[in-house]
Design a protein that fits this description.
Blueprint lengths: L4 H17 L3 H8 L6 H12 L8 H22 L14 H21 L4 H24 L12
Helix pairs in contact: 4-5
């Protein structure tokens, strides 16, 4: 019995999806000639090129740098909200300044993860697991009548 065109297409599509399921995104991108550099990969490549020994950096140095950059994010936000002792002498920071400091936090987070053997795929998996865990927790709170999870003074 001969297949119709629709049956052929359906069979081909099913085969394609089954093959794609066996292929990583990187393998697929390589096969198609797609360049898919993520910020994560760009940070690693930059450090590999310009600081070839960065992977030997003691993790405490990277965690301290991460904490320092996080402090800078907090400082920018404080000044954006009008806080700080020197706020009358300087204009409020811009969103671009905040983003620059946030990028520094992300860079050091990536470097710290990498020296601990955590690549982007593992990190993304951990993020999905964490979001799943806290989503379940919040759904349970909602069922128990605890509202939206915000403190009363923040509503």
């Amino acid at each position: 019995m001969e297949k119709t065109k629709n049956e052929e297409r359906t069979g081909t599509t099913a085969w394609l999806f089954s093959e794609l399921a066996k292929t990583t995104t990187k393998e697929l991108n390589d096969a198609l000639g797609i360049i898919s550099e993520t910020p994560w990969h760009l940070v690693v490549e930059f450090n590999d090129k310009h600081f070839p020994r960065w992977r030997k950096t003691p993790p405490v140095s990277l965690s301290n740098a991460l904490a320092g950059e996080t402090g800078e994010v907090c400082s920018v936000i404080k000044r954006m909200e009008g806080g700080g002792t020197n706020n009358h002498n300087h204009p409020a920071p811009t969103t671009e300044e905040l983003l620059e400091e946030m990028a520094d936090v992300y860079i050091y987070m990536i470097l710290l993860a990498e020296v601990h053997g955590v690549n982007q795929e593992k990190f993304d998996d951990a993020m999905i697991a964490k979001i799943t865990k806290i989503t379940k927790r919040m759904e349970e709170r909602m069922k128990e009548g605890e509202g939206d999870g915000l403190r009363e003074d923040r509503k």
